[in-house]
Fold these 2 entries.
Entry 1:
Amino acid sequence: MNGLVPLAAEVTSSTARTITITLFLFFVAVTLAITIWASRQTRNATDFYAGGRTFSGFQNGMAIGGDYMSAASFLGIAGLIALYGYDGFLYSIGFLVAWLVALLLVAELLRNSGKYTMADVLAFRMRQKPVRTAAAVSTITVSIFYLLAQMVGAGALVALLLGIKPGQTFLGMDAATAKVGTIVLVGALMIVYVTVGGMKGTTYVQIVKAFLLMGGAILMSIMVLAAYRFNLSTLLGDAAAASGKGEKFLEPGLRYGIESASALDTFYSKMDLLSLGIALVLGTAGLPHILIRFYTVPTARAARKSVLWAIGIIGVFYLLTLALGFGAAAMVGSANITAQDKAGNTAAPQLARELGIRYLGGDTGGAALLAVIAAVAFATILAVVAGLTLASSSSLAHDFYANVVKGGQASERQEVNVARIAAFVIGAVSIVLAIFAQNLNVAFLVALAFAVAASGNLPAILYSLFWKRFNTSGATWAIYGGLISAVVLVFFSPVVSGAATAMFPHQDWQWFPLSNPGIISIPIGFLCGWLGTILSGESDADKYAELEVRSLTGAGAH
Amino acid sequence: MSTDAPETVSTEPEPERGRYLAVQQSAEFAGLRKALRGFVFPATVAFFLWYALYVILSAYARGFMNTRIGDTHINIALIFGLLQFVSTFLIAWYYARYAARKVDPIADKIRHDLEGGAQ
């Protein structure tokens, strides 16, 4: 169904396969070499958790870009714009604006007062065990939601690359087997990056990936815009015409805030739009894998600089998603996209194939560009999963093992060994879960991770940094209240059951009408934090003075 | 209760704990807090409301958002979205400038005094 005659399609896919596999193996070889080099530089816990705190603001800014622009950004948003037009752009906006929360309220203060993990700040003036346990639970939950999204993206990509359509096989594998195989492969690689390279290796992998992804996105965007003589209006007009939905394709409302005959459905759909909007903008500053990146630079000022660089690179990238998404709608067409992947996750690589055919000399050129972009997408996914795995294994080792189980008495070596073991366990768990989530759009899955982060982590972080009265009970209430309400609402939402597109489409235990829980669970997180605080008499003015002075001035910073 | 004692290995000299309370209550520190909060709180409220306005208009003011600019395919919804990019870049740039001028010098002085005093 990809618009080519069968013979050409076969040539295309076998060429693309060869190039992609070659490029991908090259990327893996280079990043493994970096990882092994980094492992030689990793001597102590600070090297493993925080890359020795020697990265520059620019390097860390690029690494943040590499950590943040995930499969959701590249594959997911392009797919949503290609299928639903304007509504996909909402993600780009929310994902970018969210950085202001990190810049203004969190990055510098966190860098000054923490050491390795998000919980270092949350537990600063609290009783260590309950707060660190809660923070570890929350870190791992958010990271696993996020990991799922990346692995689903990898699975979707491989089926496109290997040219496997339903009913066909490659090396004796059908599409489903190949997807599972890829998910396992990606999981195995991320475990290697993290256990061997630690934060140093992971950071370099993310920097390399940021350049590759920007290069790929800029190249494709220029090709798309050149086809329309750099006239955005013509591109939009063509995308609208090709979508079969006319001007509606360029307006809000095809995917979110759908206006239907039922007033109740319309109300729920609009609430879902608001809920998504809030989750996107408040989630970033609660993502553990992003927060720990601020520890890799020497000072708070370098942390600020790295956020500025990150906002620059991420902002440019999200502007390009317009060209990628509407370009895919105009040049590939939604029928071709949904034939390959129902959720639209393969729109960007399919667009690459079309652009290659157009500019680089027919089917071979198409195969070549598809292969390059697919390799970039794999690099994207690997860099992000490595960051996520590192964040969650750091938290398990530093927060839970060293400070809760060992009461702060673990040696650095023990801690780092536990982190390595934890990376294995988390990798294995996410491989298994990803196999069940394959029908969901990856941008959408990441939005759920954002909702969980905004509900479970952000209230506790903000209260910790800015509210004198905040205490242990408030912190644990905020984290568990936000986290549990978000996860429970997702579990009973149409995402998990009771809808054709759900994870379990044939079961139905759904009662919560919204697919994103943020609008309910984020206020619950803030409310629980407040209530837990005032119900407890605990308060430590000395420790708050220390936290406030250290976080604002950088005195005694690690 | 606090078990972070083994964690205080630092490259910088560690100020005495008792000194923090005194610093926190000093007029100089109050000025630092005011300089920082005086910018970041209003800026946060402003960009959040501006973003919320965009999301709410996308949900409830479809007629307005769907207005096309001239006879192009560009509509107000797209312009509004692009303006969110512009405002984000501007706030980030302005904050960096503000912090370097008004916040960093006070923070440096207090830190210097604290760390010098601990030796």
Entry 2:
Amino acid sequence: MIAKSSKMETLAENIVEQQAVKGRSLWQDAISRFVRNKAALVSVFVLIFITLLSFVGPMFSPWDYETIDWGVMGNAATMGYPSIETGHYFGTDDLGRDIFARTMQGTQISLTVGFLGAAVAVIVGTLYGAISGYVGGTLDNVLMRIVDLLLSVPYMFVLILLLVVFGRSLQMLFVGIGLFAWMDMARIVRGQTLSIKNKEFIEAAVASGVGSFTIIMRHIVPNLLGVVIVYASLLVPQLILTESFISFLGLGVQEPMTSWGALINEGAKTMQYGVIWQLAFPLAFFIVGLFCFFFIGDGLRDAFDPKDR
Amino acid sequence: MFSFIVRRVAYAVPTLLILIIASFLLMYAAPGGPFTTERALPPEVLKNIEARYGLNDPLAVQIWNYIWNVVTNFDFGPSFKYRDRSVNDIISQGFPVTLTYGIWSFIFAIIVGLSLGIVAAIRHNTTADYAAVGVSIGAQVLPNFVMAPILVLIFTLWLRWLPGGGWNGGQIEYVIMPVIALSTSYMANIARLARSSMLEVLNSNFIRTAKAKGLSERNVILKHALKPALMPVISYLGPAFVGMITGSVVVDMYFSTGGMGQYFVNSAFNRDYSVMMGITILIGVLTITFNTVVDIVYAWIDPRIRLS
Amino acid sequence: MKFTTMFKLASATAIVAALTSGAYADKMHPETGEKLAEDQTFTYRLLDGIPTLDPQLNEDVSGSDILRDLFEGLLNQDAKGNLIPGVAESWEANDDNTVYTFKLRDDAKWSNGDPVTAGDFVYAWQRAADPATASPYSWFVELMSIENAAEIIAGDKDPSELGVEAVDDHTFKVTLTSALPYFAAMTTHATTFPVHKATIDEHGDQWTRPENMVSNGAYKLTEWVLNERTTRERNEMYWNNDKTILDKVVTLVINDENVALTRYRAGELDRTEIPSGQYPALSKELPNEATVFPRLCSYYYTFNMSDKGPEAFKDQRVRQALSYAVDRKVITDNILQAGQYQAYTFTPGATAGFEVPDVAFGQMTQEERDAKAKELMAEAGYGADNPLKFDMLYNTSEAHKKIAVAMSQMWKQKLGVEATLANMEWKTFLETRGNQDFELARGAWCGDYNEASTFLDLVTTPSGYNDGKYSNAEVDQLMVDAKTSSDASANYTRVEEIIADEMPIIPIYHYTGNLMLKENLKGWPVENVEQNWYSRDLYKVAE
């Protein structure tokens, strides 16, 4: 994480410098560079397809994600195999529930956790870092010490405790996962804010009597968008991985809802019993999805960081 | 350098104190306690159990006593779950286990990760590059709770090469599978970091100059590119090392090593307060220590960075 | 030439090997005459690390299994669960069954050579009751109805006043507050095992470490690596050591049951549990190894009938309807699939002396039950426009999840009931259920001794495990009377009938034990419903 942040800092410097010189053209540059990156571009389309499928797919399935096919229940190995005839395109789980419908549902949950978790991290991290960097002085010192402190906390441990203390809910999962991912964001944003702070346009704003908070929101934050986007895109797959681990511990979403992690965990337990589809299909979605995120993340980073080329 | 270390230590103390207090509070806020059992305990018995572990004191007193015992006697208290073990016993049994497979994982992850990353960067945009990127992302996204049972199936049941778990004092055949399961995702991270920073360095002006001067590629890479390219990897290694030597709950669960990783999660589930605290502190200390070490190494490799 | 020398050498080695193994070849099982295997090591899987090996502090089933090998109480059980002498050679009760006198054998020894005396039992039993020991199982001594036990546990009397006495070194006398018909059977429980006072005084809490422990059972503890393994080996001092065949017993902690099965298949284990739902396939593949037998455990859901519980569950018709609509056959035959018994009563049919009463709803077909359930639900005022909604609580586990999902779907499809699943990790689950912060919660209970009261006590008002807070004066009285009556079966039948009518709990199924046992491991007591097995009764035959 620290590695990423130090790299991010240099990258962010580049972005900011670019902006100062070329203004808005950075965005056009970035987009055109991104579009030229085939792996990233394909990933975007695959990801859009997966997302749409997770919403549209269930409409074409005769089974929903919670209804039990009583005829198959208990005989998943012999009767629950993937088949077009029975309507179980991806087969069923041990209870006779449709894996296709459940995978679609799990996709929705996992993507939501990834995106909302990243959103929490980005919002908290950006504001925290921007305030710390802009105000400076003692406040900056205190805020950054807090970040250092939080970074030395075994965070998985605290996340487990949080889920135990406050009960398990989808909201808690978003907040819990997001809350532990903002620290790096805050550090990077602070560093950038320090360098933007002394630019002429900020001084002009200060001179004309604009309040600190307004300056942060109007002038500082928009100038950090590039680095924020890149960082967020790398964060999403990390959070999806974290969620899968939480599911493995049995602290994930409540049944009958499910997630990629929960499905994979169940599938991994039964893989030696001749029902490999219970693992294969969810795992395929999970791996393809994460590959896409990583490619997009790399693509965005390259796009916003011209130095690499 | 010396003042830098002193300052780091000075920061570490309040950091740890706050960590202890926060964990204490969070722990006590969790529903249920170490002695919540299916059949409610008689009040007199419960009172005695609580007295035994000092749970009937006010929270502030408990925290103070705890810190006092840790500081003066290095005593982390008795485990609440395992009656004849103290936290020191548990850590001194479990930590050597995770330390062993953690260090092996660390070495393995660095060697394989760096090789993959550097080869991919040198052969940028070739099949070798794509393969290396594919392998490293694949290793990163395949959850180890899927990988671990697959390893057991392959190496224990089908090939009959390795025992399916246990530790047995750390004999080599018991260490192999934990190392594979633990190191892959770290290896993947190292490979990705090494690749991108190597690429960056190879495209930089000083390398172009070196190449233009007619130095062999081998020379350029080993003498000029490698060191700067390793910088981001090095700062990743601190937290990665701590992560590996404190083990993983998945590895300990599937390979029954008796290591620290499972205590980490189980103590939270069992509300084994003292073990939970002991491990939190251990990980906190290790994290701070190795972050400091990384900073020092960083400054030593790259003189431009001052430890100010 | 070279070939011949090698051949000679090889044959010489073969002869030596044959001679040495000849010693083993002579080893036969003394009773069955089967040829015994050379390596008498039994290795089995444990789900979790053992928290303690102190008999008085233990509260774990797997801990008890080990303790029965390391220590020996007054009485033991045979393969069918009948009482046989342990340290006590004989025992007798006075006329009104309130004073028991045990004659201890004089050749019983601790592993350090000290004789096992009545004083050791007095010490151990007082220790179990003493609040200072802080044993989570102290209630067991109270359950045994020993004089002053309740007062000692409550802190009102000194432990020395417990109704136990060492008349002489080999005579142990127990005084009870009331005639408890199953008292003798309770002395097979680990809580009542003797402990060596000098060792405990010397080492304190650490007396249970292998290097410190002094025990009187057929085995002694030689290795205990927390959360990895324990090893126990033959105790040469044990009075009946000559009859012990297994030399060594090893437990390996393997959290995941599927990995455990893989390792069993790879030959690393002699015993492991069958993962839920896998019995049919395994019994086809390995018919001589997949073993199923009845257990003394009951799985149920309990309604919260306390003031904190939902209004709907105060209506008997709602409780009945929900219970009727659960198709237990689907749960036993399609989910669990290992011969579990559909339950319409709380107490399992395998319980000694318990005749399963023909409760009315157990006699109906599932169609009749479903029809009746719909009727009752409509009468209670719930229907499509006014669906019943509640949360059902269970602790995190694959099998519990499957059953909860199936039940909620049965209710949804048959009655239009919307049951929301809520799973919690164990401690949170216990706290929530114990504080009556639930609506419907899972429960399970395994008998502490083989008698119906170990189950039915749980539905009495004062029970520490009655988390649904069901309270019925008649049930309470029947159970109090059962403690002193010579034949309590009528009381138990009546209690079951009341439960079936008022339905404070939904009985789901009664357990079976599902084990994979290697074919060469013999002597497993499948007929012992409490599964009180002793390693010294097991042996491995040569293949």
